[in-house]
Design a protein that fits this description.
The chain is 41% helix and 19% strand. The chain is α+β, with helices and mostly antiparallel strands. It starts with a helix and ends in a 36-residue tail after the last helix.
Length: 312
């Protein structure tokens, strides 16, 4: 079942839009079984089963259908994959969910070989370690990566200010005054941002102005729409770090990877992973189925360019 656990970890989250509500979900299906994780942003549910459970449940729900478990798993993958990508489902499949005690039952109705096909995913509350593995640790890693990105952007802005200063000292003038900007000061910018967020000296001092817009979670749409490349890059790095621990015979490898083995490497190693990670990576199916202060750039390193564009 380790393949299912690793495969599920590296899948991105997607919106599961049902008639009665909207959920976040991720799934990984092979011919050996499937793993499914579902959340309504209040609770998280999980189911992981092997082919023997699939075969038994298929017999109970579809008495007129006789097929190997691989066929049912392949059909479930064909139904879930488009749904998690906001695409039309083949065979006019319908999905619904029910809360039974603490469990969540996700029901699927479609056709297989011209006969009605039914399936129920029996999802139980996810363990704290699973929630940490799929949400808490990746979100912390993403926060560190975004902080690193903000620092690099601040450095780029200071470089641009130095370039503009060099142009001005060479006699260039801005042709349109409305485009003039003040030199970027990172400390002042961060202080003003915190004031607009209603935070002063580490405490909430006034109703926030910018924070609700910037941090509105809603139904999770911004998270699954804009940040899944970064999410999959972080979880891939997490899985690689855990595999290194296993290879080294570290007993911690059976749980979460050591923070020093994963997150400490994130800022310097993430860029390549993010650029290469697809928005919704395909599951690997078998045939059937914090950093110190940034050094201020030196003016002598700025290459002189021919004056053009906004400068005359």
């Amino acid at each position: 079942m380790e393949e299912l656990e690793q495969g599920l970890l590296m899948q991105p989250w997607a919106r599961l839009q049902l008639a009665e509500n909207s959920l976040l979900a991720k799934a990984y299906i092979t011919k050996q079984g499937y793993a499914l994780l579902v959340s309504d942003l209040q609770e998280v549910w999980h189911e992981q089963v092997d082919a023997s459970v699939v075969s038994q449940r298929a017999k109970e729900l579809n008495k007129r259908l006789t097929a190997p478990p691989e066929a049912f798993l392949s059909h479930l993958d064909d139904l879930l994959r488009p749904l998690l990508r906001d695409m039309d489902c083949p065979g006019k499949a319908t999905f619904s969910c029910d809360h039974v005690a603490e469990a969540l039952i996700l029901r699927v109705r479609s056709e297989l070989s011209g006969l009605p096909f039914c399936w129920n995913f029996h999802c139980i509350p996810a363990s704290p370690s699973l929630v940490s593995q799929h949400l808490i640790r990746p979100l912390m890693g993403m926060s560190l990566a975004l902080q690193c990105q903000a620092r690099e952007l601040a450095t780029l802005l200071r470089m641009k200010d130095l370039e503009i200063q060099d142009y001005q000292e060479s006699g260039a003038a801005l042709s349109r005054d409305r485009l003039k900007t003040e030199p970027f000061e990172e400390a002042s910018f961060l202080e003003q941002f915190m004031v607009e967020c209603g935070v002063t000296n580490g405490s909430i001092s006034s109703p926030p102005q910018r924070l609700p817009e910037a941090c509105s979670v809603g139904d999770g749409r911004p998270f699954v729409t804009h940040l899944q490349n970064l999410y999959t890059a972080v979880t891939r790095r997490e899985a690689q770090a855990r595999q290194k621990l296993r290879d080294a015979g570290d007993p911690q490898a059976s749980g979460s990877a050591s923070p020093h083995g994963t997150n400490s490497q994130l800022p310097s190693q993430l860029e390549e992973s993010v650029s290469s990670a697809p928005a919704h990576p395909e599951p690997e199916k078998e045939p059937t189925g914090t950093s110190g202060p940034v050094q201020r750039p030196q003016l002598s390193k700025v290459k002189r360019k021919k004056l053009k564009g906004l400068f005359s």
